[in-house]
Structure formats: structure tokens, C-alpha cells
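Q: I have 124 residues here and want to know how they pack in 3D. Can you give me a structure?
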Amino acid sequence: MPTSMAFRSSRYGWLVISVALVGFFFFVKYVPPDGQATLLTSKDRWAAARRPVVVTMAEYERIGTGMSYEQVSTFIGAEGVELSRSYVAGYITVMYSWKNANGSNMNVTFQNGALIAKAQFGLP
């Protein structure tokens, strides 16, 4: 086999492997074993978002900095859908979303267990 042919096939092999890895990390989210979560697919996370949760602007306004996820989910009356989780320099940052059937939603970010930011779109 000529050298150029061997180089080309190995390059395509690495391309296929790279695409497969990107696809895996796009569709599957690994959460380190802390007793709270396991492997979750994007489909699993958003299937929970389709349930008839009603989040209102009044509830959004009453949620404040420093509250825990448990306090917020109890106040709303439903679990949020985890959108992201990161571990950087001793800080654990997690973002959750609550979504209404009409597409309006609320996103809340917690760092080391305390609410640090919130955002909403179109809440009634």
C-alpha cells in the first residue's frame, strides 16, 4: 500500500472516531457519582419538561438569592430539569429549568447549593 493511501485511511479513521465521541458526549451527560444522578440522555431531561408544570411570574419574583434547589422545587411544586453541571476550582454550579406547556420557562443557577442567578422567558 502506498504511503499516501495509508495516511489517508488513518486520517479518516481518526475522523470517524472523533465524530463518534462528539456524538456520544452530545447525547449523554455524565454526572459524577454523588448519589444524586446517573447517566442521563438529553431526551430523558426534556421528557420531564413536558409535564404540566405551571410557573408564574409571581413565583419567579418570590424566588431569591441564597435559596436551595430543594426550597425552589418545593415552592414551585415540581422538580426542575437539570440543564448543566460543572465542577471548577471547588465550585459546583448547576442550572435547572422549569418549562410551561406554552414554552414560557424559568432557569435557575445554583452554586455550591445556593441560588446565584435566575432568568425567565414569557412567564404568565
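Q: Anything worth noting?
A: Strands lie at 28-29, 40-41, 81-88, 91-99, 105-111, 114-121. The two ends are 67 Å apart (CA to CA).
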